Amino acid sequence: MKDKIKSIGLFILLFLLFLFSDLIYILPMDLLNIDYNSLSYNIQTLCSLISSLILGIIIILTYKKYLKEKLIDYKKNFNEYMEIGMKFWFLGLIGMSVTNILIGTFSPVQEANNEVLVQEMLKQAPFLSFLSAAFVAPFLEEMLFRKSLGDIFKNKKLMVIMSGLIFGLLHVIFSLQTPWDLLYTIPYGLLGASFAYMLYKKDNVFIPITFHVVHNGLLTLISILL
Prior knowledge:
Blueprint: H1 2-19, H2 23-31, H3 41-62, H4 64-76, H5 78-106, H6 113-124, H7 126-150, H8 156-170, H9 185-202, H10 206-225
Helix pairs in contact: 1-7, 3-7, 5-9, 5-10, 6-7, 7-8, 7-10, 8-9, 9-10
């Protein structure tokens, strides 16, 4: 029970830091009477990236021993983990693609608002947005919504479901405009559940981190080039 309470407390703390990481640069700017909205988009994106990197450092220090052990294991079993990760990533990708098509066809919302915002970021600040979306975000999200959240659940199948659900909700809730937008929780949730299942199968967070990086990297790179 004591370990579970500790895991819940740690997840809540990291989750709050994740949600309010922008305060790292907003508060100092307020104290210095700097108008954040007057800054260029590139500077705004850089500030956001720096705050995410600071959170990443906090997570690395928190899970230093775990990450070191799992990195050694990841290198030792690289081929096996790539095979497993590829299989479940494709399943998640298929589920995400099919549900996106169905939602776009049978609902008034043709595209997730979160996706629209990401596309706008990539247009305004392509290099910094690519770094954030392709590398920093996958690490933060996998450590938070797979590792930290996963430590709370003894039932790992329940962990997969809850991880996918929370991951999906967080990708739509802050860009919510109509109730229909909540439908996009499903495709994001399916992808999140596929990442969670990788961790469930082999208990190594570097597997979902790798395929989350691959997923986001490919999609953002295609968006920039097209």
